[in-house]
Amino acid sequence: MSEQAPLHEVRPTTQRDIPERFIPVPIVEKGHTFASVTDQISSIVLKKKTPIGWWIGFGITFALVQVLMVTLARVVFGGIGNFGINHPVGWGFDIINFVWWIGIGHAGTLISAILLLLRQDWRTSINRFAEAMTLFAVASAGLYPLFHTGRPWYAFWLFPYPNTMGLWPQFRSPLMWDVFAVSTYATVSFLFWYVGLIPDLATLRDRARSRIGQTIYGMGALGWRGSAKHWSRYEHAYLLLAGLSTPLVLSVHTIVSFDFAVSVIPGWHSTFFPPYFVAGAVFAGFAMVLTLSIPIRKIFKLQDFITMKHLENMGKVMLATGLIVFYAYIMEAFFAWYSGNVYERYMILNRQHGPYKHMYMMLIICNGLAPQMMWVKRFRTSATMLFITAMFVNVGMWLERFVIIPTSLSRDYLPSSWGTYHGSPWDWSMFVGSIGLFLCLLFLFLRLLPMISIFEMRTMLPEADVHEAEA
Amino acid sequence: MKPRTGLYGVLAEFPDPQSLLDAAERTTTAGYTNVDAYSPFPIHGLAEAIGFHRSGLSQLVLGGGVIGGLGGFFMCWYANVVSYPLNSGGKPLNSWPAFIPIAFECAVLLASFAAVLGMLGLNGLPMPYHPVFNVPRFDQASRDRFFLSIQVRDPKFDHDAVRGFLMGLNATEVTDVDW
Predict the structure, then answer these.
(1) What is the pTM of this model?
(2) How far is CA A366 from CA A283, A370, A382, A385, in A?
(3) ipTM score of the complex?
């Protein structure tokens, strides 16, 4: 035999008719070339005319950013008493939304790093905007603890620097762990995202017609010229970054869960919080990626690149992580009963029958029951059903944090210190405003940078396959 | 410094990745050493074909991780044990498990910086100007065209011979590149 066919072209000969469901669906639809992939993705950024839908979306979300600005001004000048927090519930919306946003961000890193290490090629179509989503979600998340401190202008006290007060931060505190975890996460996510962008910025530099476009994309591209030696180091660095981001993303939500688990509040003081939180983060993140990618692929006509296979795979990940989360809810109740501890038992009864019982019921519907739809292939391959399920999960994951935080804080050990908690209008305006900030940044990203990694899409085409000569 | 003038090398254009890889292999076999290949996406085996082997990045990243981890731990230990000892809940001053999360984050942070800055630094980037950009068709190197250059400083470089050699590799176009 002179030359062996590449492995993916080898078909088993023992079975003649391979059932259709075993034939892999291509990642890019047929008929694309290096040039067509490049032109279609870069034209979204480079064309002069901005679609009217973009202006409407950007306008609405920009208005919501102003709502955020007003809220922050109110909180800075009037104090955090404007939020609904007071004794005994001191965490409230700030920490609910912080954890919600950080969790959403985790899918971006999971898609870009963990799926890369697992050689899941389908990640290529969605990793760029999932990473952008991570950055913007972390930006929205970071606002909450920053303003929850009450005096955000002293936030630099959280960093160790030699000062005239002769003080150092208390490094044994989970609050400090959080500062380091979230700031490292934001930095490394940005590096990963930017490194992925460099070759695409070079493409935009070479294809931009306007002087300003050539200059700005050219500066970002750092003089990238696609040299083979550069590509070799580049791929090496990218793989190392993926390897570093994988434990990082797991550590970040682990440390976020330590904020709870290291305390002694009933319902928080539990060793299984780290895996429970990490699974929840992936669950929430994939729901958000689906929520965003379903309308985006339709509006920007990217069905060739973000195919039904991608959506179905995301639906499967959502189902798997959703089952882990649902298992955790069951185990929480089991631990409470099995511990024999009266406070833990009261905690779970209070969740199910106390003042926040509706929240708990909705949580089980959204996170426990709704994802079960993903068992059915017909629902997994329907963009509408996927979108509906993802919306249930987005709401459900917010409710999960609500159930964990105010329910436990409002009913701790001493009945004399019990209370009730509701978000104030300023809590809600900050929440809506942070969603506005997230979406507004996302709209800017879609218009100014390639939302799909162009160079990685080129490698997905069959013409990119090469055979090395026999040595 | 006086700007360099004259010829930088000769650049050949190829229509697809396979012909570039074949050409690169035959160029190194022919004994050329100062060779570079340009492609719009990473091609497996291409860097090896032009005689490039280890990138030296792993050691840098390991170094960054070790310094970050030890440095992060030292920071916590120095602040909370030596400089400002504070008894918290009767725990020992050097309650090292509580310092692990921050030491870990610092290790990842420095290793990531080492990976990115190391990659850029070893590649000599940022480099806004490079002679190959003088070739008008080189803007297709970031779209769907593949290029191979042999540089003047190659000991075997002989202008006519190199042009003829590259033509013989089925290049669609061969251009001289000026500094």
Answers:
(1) 0.89
(2) 12, 5, 19, 14
(3) 0.91
